[in-house]
């Protein structure tokens, strides 16, 4: 048992995911042990409601267990953790949409910090070049609206619920963000 655990401990996430695709419960447990902590932190950065985060975590790892073959069979040179985050981010967007559909703000909605998050900075750096520079120079409140509407694919209404803003404010900030980006990139 220990030898098996040590063997799994030496594998990277992509190889673990390929074993999960074959139904290997030990590989799934190891993948969960490695990825669940950072995934939860990332989700909490976008959503302060622990109940939603817990639901998204559960839905994400259930999807990984069921669909690991989709990664293992189709991705060449892809990142397992990137694939995992994509699943989690989509589940989080779905959770926000369910909340927005009921037109009630979440009990503990995500709050915005005045300083940009490390994730926002990493995103801007990953985009790179002039677009990344323009994103870094955006005011945090404009960047938050841009991230929710463009990158996360939320509607104006869903963004309003998430950011606890009136829909008109979301529309205004989205317009200001687009104008600022155009000026920066011109």
UniProtKB/TrEMBL annotation:
Keywords: Sigma factor, Transcription, Transcription regulation. One of its GO terms (biological process) is DNA-templated transcription initiation. The keyword Nucleotide-binding does not apply. InterPro entries: RNA_pol_sigma-70-like, RNA_pol_sigma-70_dom, RNA_pol_sigma70_r2, RNA_pol_sigma70_r4_t2, RNA_pol_sigma_r2, RNA_pol_sigma_r3/r4-like, WH-like_DNA-bd_sf. Residues 31-100 form the RNA polymerase sigma-70 region domain. GO terms for molecular function: DNA binding; sigma factor activity. NCBIfam families: sigma70-ECF. Belongs to the sigma-70 factor family. ECF subfamily. This is RNA polymerase sigma24 factor. The lineage of its organism: Bacteria, Bacillati, Actinomycetota, Actinomycetes, Kitasatosporales.
């Amino acid at each position: 048992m220990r030898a098996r655990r040590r063997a799994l401990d030496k594998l990277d996430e992509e190889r673990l995911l390929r074993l999960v695709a074959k139904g290997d419960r030990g590989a799934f447990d190891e993948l969960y042990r490695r990825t669940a902590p950072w995934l939860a932190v990332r989700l909490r950065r976008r959503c302060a409601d622990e109940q939603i985060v817990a639901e998204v975590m559960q839905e994400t790892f259930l999807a990984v267990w069921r669909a690991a073959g989709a990664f293992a069979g189709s991705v060449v040179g892809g990142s397992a953790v990137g694939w995992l985050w994509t699943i989690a981010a989509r589940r989080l967007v779905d959770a926000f949409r369910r909340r927005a559909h009921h037109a009630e703000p979440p009990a503990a909605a995500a709050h915005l910090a005045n300083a940009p998050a490390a994730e926002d900075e990493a995103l801007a750096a990953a985009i790179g070049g002039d677009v990344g520079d323009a994103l870094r120079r955006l005011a945090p409140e404009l960047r938050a609206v841009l991230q929710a509407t463009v990158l996360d694919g939320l509607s104006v209404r869903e963004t309003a619920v998430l950011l606890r803003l009136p829909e008109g404010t979301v529309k205004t900030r989205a317009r200001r963000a687009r104008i600022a980006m155009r000026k920066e990139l011109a």
